[in-house]
Amino acid sequence: MTRSDRVLADAEAVLRRHSERGQSLSARARQRRNAALMRKLKYAFWTVIAVLVASIAAGFVMPLGTTGVMVALGIMIAALLLIAALPTEPRVKTAALAATPLPALPLQTEIWLDNQRKALPPPALTLADSIGVKLETLAPQLERLTDQEPAAQEIRKLLSDHLPELVTGYESIPAPLRREERNGRIPEQQLVEGLTVIDTELARISETLASGDIDKLAVQNRFLELKYQEAKELGR
C-alpha cells in the first residue's frame, strides 16, 4: 500500500469513527431539554433569592406586616409560575429555516425535526434519528462552504424546503387518514419513503464533501513528499 493509499484509508477510518460517535437525535434533544430545565431551576433559585433580599431590605425601611409578606409571596409565586411556563426546549419555526445561515442550518434543522417528533409515526422516528446523526456530521463540513457554491444551494434546498414540505404535508393530513390508502398511496408510507430518500441524500452529500477533503489531503501529502524529496536531493 502506497503512502497516499494509507492516508486515504486513515482518513476514511476517522470519518467512520466520527459517524459512530454521533448520538441519536432523541438523545441530543434530551440533553437540550435537560440543559433548559437546569436554566429554569437556576432562574427560579435566583428569583427566590431576589424576592427575599428585596423583602428584607424593605423590612428595614418599614415593617412589612402580614400584607407585605403576602405581597412578597405573591410576587415569588407569580415569578415561579412564569419561569415554569417557559419552554423546556428550543423551538424553530419552519419559515426560519430558509433564513438560517448555512453553518447553523444542520443544528436548526435537527431542532426543528425534533419539534415534529410527536406527529411522526414510529417508522419515521428511526429515520429522524438517522437524519439527526447525519446532520451532526454535516455541520462542520458546511463551515467551509459559501452560499454560492452548488453544494451549499443543494443542501439548503434539501433542509429548508424539501424536508419541511414533506413533514408538514404529512402533518396537514387528518390523523385518521394517514394510514388509509388513497390513489394507490398511503400518506404514512409516503412520509417514510421521503425521509429515506432525504437520509440517503444527506449521506451522499456528506461523503462527497468528505471525499473532497480526503483528496485534498492526499494531494497535499504528495506535494510534501515531492518537496522534501527535492530538498534531500539538493542537500546531497
Q: Cα-atom Rg, whole angstroms?
A: 27 Å
Report the major sheet.
Answer: none
Q: Strand fraction band?
A: under 5%
Shape: flat
Features:
0% strand; 2 domains; 78% helix; mainly alpha; 236 residues; flat
Q: What would a concise description of this structure say?
A:
The chain contains eight helices and no strands.
What does this structure look like?
This protein has 236 residues and is mostly helical. The chain folds into two domains: 23-85; 94-235. It is 78% helix and 0% strand. It is built from eight helices and no strands. α1 packs antiparallel against α8 (187-235), α5 (105-115) runs parallel beside α7 and α6 (122-142) packs parallel to α8. The radius of gyration is 27 Å and the shape is flat. 16% of the residues are buried.
How are the SSEs ordered, and which strands pair?
Elements: H1 3-21, H2 25-61, H3 65-85, H4 94-97, H5 105-115, H6 122-142, H7 150-171, H8 187-235
